[in-house]
Amino acid sequence: IALDEAKKLAARTAVDEWITEDTKIVGIGSGSTIVFAVQRIAERVWKEGALCDLICVPTSFQARQLILDYNLNLGDLDRNPIIDIAIDGADEVDSRMVLIKGGGGCLLQEKIVASCAKHLIVIADYTKRSLRLGEQWCKGIPIEVTPIAHVPIKLKIEALFGGEATLRMALAKAGPIITDSGNFLLDWRFVAKREFDWDEVNRALMMIPGVVETGLFVDNAHKCYFGMADGTVKVQN
Ligand code: DER
To answer: What's a Gene Ontology MF term here (predicted)?
Structure first.
């Protein structure tokens, strides 16, 4: 099946399994796969008259726009700091459920919302599965940084862990990408010459002054739904 069909399959399966009449607050992730999840939620709200009280907390400007476009109830962390289920995509999921996120540049609010949720449910197409982190996603691990510190942080990451951390440049704007929170993004392409302890790496990265957040989701995902090429759904937990 086409990639979009695989994304849709994963999204609809996860929504139907995890968004029930008891679900009050859902975190809405960012990217392309989540669009199918929001479409399924909207279908159940508007066609089936279900989930009328569901409140959707966004993880980016994009997610907020999506919630508004489908006329769903928009929430925020001020009013809804405790989230039942967060649903989000990922760039890669390894065999231990470590995620790389941030391909869409929204990792900061995504990780915050995921941290406020009882469970993070990941939806992805089959191209996101890997045995060892970095096998599929070759664009590096996104790291959100305070703009003034992007060069010293780059140098420190490369000194600590090797590889290369590059500033993510905008395409339709001169200069670097600016995130929804006004920060820069470094994409750290590591050399998987040795098995990294990703929890250790994540903690060390977070200790570098100026690092705001990393796209390493080490112990966040509760369950992952992969839409497979043969039209089945593979669940990993
Ligand atoms: O940027 C992100 O973390 C997004 O969730 C992204 O990784 C998933 O994007 P996709 O659903 O378009 O593949």
So the answer is: ribose-5-phosphate isomerase activity
Which structure tokens are listed for 102? 């941030």
Tokens for 13, please give them: 């399966």
Atom number of ligand 1 nearest to Cα 34: 11
Question: The complex's ipTM?
Answer: 0.97
Question: Which contacts of 39-42 are long-range, i.e. CB under 8 A and separated by 24 or more positions?
Answer: 39/11, 39/70, 40/11, 40/12, 40/15, 40/16, 41/15, 41/70, 41/72, 42/70, 42/71, 42/72
DSSP 138: T
For residue 212, give the nearest of 159, 123, 143 by alpha carbon: 143
Distance CA 26, CA 10 (A): 17
Q: How high is the mean pLDDT in each 10-residue block of the chain (237 residues)?
A: 97 98 97 98 94 96 98 98 98 97 98 98 97 90 98 98 97 98 98 85 98 97 97 97
Catalytic residue list contains 110: yes
What span, in angstroms and rounded, lies between the C-alpha atoms of 111 and 74?
Answer: 19
CA distances from 164 to 5, 9, 12, 69, 167 (A): 35, 36, 37, 39, 10
Give the helix/strand (H/E) hosting 139: none
- The residues that bridge with 213 in the sheet, in sequence order, are 144
- Which ligand 1 atom is at minimum distance from the Cα of 107? 3
Burial 69-80 (b: 16+ CB within 10 A, else e): ebebbbbeeeeb
